[in-house]
């Protein structure tokens, strides 16, 4: 079976990567390549949509696709657990709605790093996240950092909040689920995340670095191939690779 894919954000870096993957694949076929000037109804007739557009445009794309019964894989940043909850209600209230898969990060290594941080979180009372991306990334914190912070918070639900002294000071980062998150945006970087956990006499650092966009390829293909059979709302690539993680949300 060939899966017809509509790509929203086709002119961006992730969009161009997706187009190359679709062209090289035997079971995927490009249905439409949408830019910011395209009409959303160009997605109609696709078996699955991929949203790698812009945070300001993503909500409209997701609502159109889901409302049209087209499953959509969302790789665009800016999706917090609260915004995802709105989409969950929309999908639940519309019987014919297409499934929505929110994938904050298509990198398998990044997903595993987040899972390791959630696993370690109950054992440490001091936890902070430092994430760094290229200068062109328009949002901060990153969706991956938001996802990680939310999962760390879920993992510590029975332990109480982390120790975050002087959180009122701007230099201490933005609190996400009670976790201080610090963002760097600068030339020379692609994507990095470090979760630093501190305990009595020790620290544990869980770090992941993205060195090439090729690290996203396996995750993109996995999500596109899974989407046509998906139901409801799925959050995170971890679900697709069998990781047992909480369902809190995020964006890349």
TrEMBL record:
Its EC number is 1.17.1.8. One of its GO terms (molecular function) is 4-hydroxy-tetrahydrodipicolinate reductase. The keyword Cytoplasm applies. (S)-2,3,4,5-tetrahydrodipicolinate binds at residues 134, 143-144. Transmembrane segments: none annotated. Homotetramer. It comes from the Bacteria. One of its GO terms (cellular component) is cytosol. NAD(+) binds at residues 9-14, 75-77. It comes from Agromyces terreus. This is 4-hydroxy-tetrahydrodipicolinate reductase. It catalyses: (S)-2,3,4,5-tetrahydrodipicolinate + NAD(+) + H2O = (2S,4S)-4-hydroxy-2,3,4,5-tetrahydrodipicolinate + NADH + H(+); (S)-2,3,4,5-tetrahydrodipicolinate + NADP(+) + H2O = (2S,4S)-4-hydroxy-2,3,4,5-tetrahydrodipicolinate + NADPH + H(+). It is an enzyme of class 1 (oxidoreductase).
């Amino acid at each position: 079976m060939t899966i017809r894919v509509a790509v929203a954000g086709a002119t961006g870096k992730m969009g161009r990567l997706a187009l190359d993957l679709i062209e090289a694949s035997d079971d995927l076929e490009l249905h439409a390549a949408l830019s910011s000037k395209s009409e959303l109804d160009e997605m109609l007739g696709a078996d699955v949509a991929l949203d790698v557009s812009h945070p300001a445009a993503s909500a409209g794309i997701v609502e159109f696709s889901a409302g049209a019964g087209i499953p959509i894989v969302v790789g665009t940043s800016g999706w917090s657990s609260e915004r995802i909850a709105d989409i969950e209600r929309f999908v639940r209230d519309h019987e014919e709605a297409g499934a929505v898969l929110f994938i904050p990060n298509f990198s398998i290594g990044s997903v595993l790093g987040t899972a390791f941080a959630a696993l370690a979180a109950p054992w440490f009372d001091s936890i902070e996240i430092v994430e760094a991306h290229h200068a062109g990334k328009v949002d901060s914190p990153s969706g991956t950092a938001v996802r990680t912070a939310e999962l760390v918070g879920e993992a510590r639900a029975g332990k109480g909040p982390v120790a975050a002294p002087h959180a009122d000071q701007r230099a201490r980062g933005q609190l996400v689920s009670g976790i201080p998150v610090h963002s760097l945006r600068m030339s020379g970087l692609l994507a990095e995340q470090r979760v630093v956990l501190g305990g009595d006499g020790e620290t544990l650092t869980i770090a992941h670095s993205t060195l090439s966009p090729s690290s996203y390829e396996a995750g993109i293909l996995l999500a596109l191939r899974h989407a046509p059979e998906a139901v409801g709302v799925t959050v995170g690539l971890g679900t697709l690779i069998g990781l047992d993680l909480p369902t809190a949300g995020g964006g890349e």
